[in-house]
Amino acid sequence: MKTYKSKALTLFKPEILKNSGAAFFDTGISAGFPSPADDFSEHRLSLDHTLVKNKETTFFARVSGQSMIGAGLNDNDLLVIDRSLEPAHNKIAVCFLDGEFTVKRLKVNAEGIWLQPENTDYPIIKITNQNDFVIWGIVTNVIKKV
Length: 146
Fold this sequence. Notes:
Strand content: 35-45%
CATH class: Mainly Beta
Number of helices: 1
Radius of gyration: 18 Å
Distance between the termini: 26 Å
Mean pLDDT: 81
Number of domains: 1
CATH architecture: Ribbon
CATH superfamily: Umud Fragment, subunit A
Helix content: under 10%
Strand order of the largest sheet: 1-2-5-6-11-7-8-9-10
Structural class: mainly beta
């Protein structure tokens, strides 16, 4: 398994989902009143087909920290990251900044690039020519434990 590590994120290839298939009930699960169980129709669901569009360029990473809680990314959540997607304003991106991986919302305009946390306890980061900076990939999904 190919891994990349920093204090903030550990990135790895999605080999763990290879040939996985879980039971999938293709009906809406009510968050209100329950519906009769015999309405369910069981199919097989492959998470790699659902979450991974580009196998060669997709990685997973665990979130470390609280800077993106406003975007629903909590400590220990699993991110699905696609390196083939184009970075764009307002996308959530995994970036390599001055020797560390970080996940932030991209803010791009004529004046420059900023990395916007989704928690007011953390500062906005302005990218300058002095930074060692690479947009590593775009977050496409998040997997959470409940």
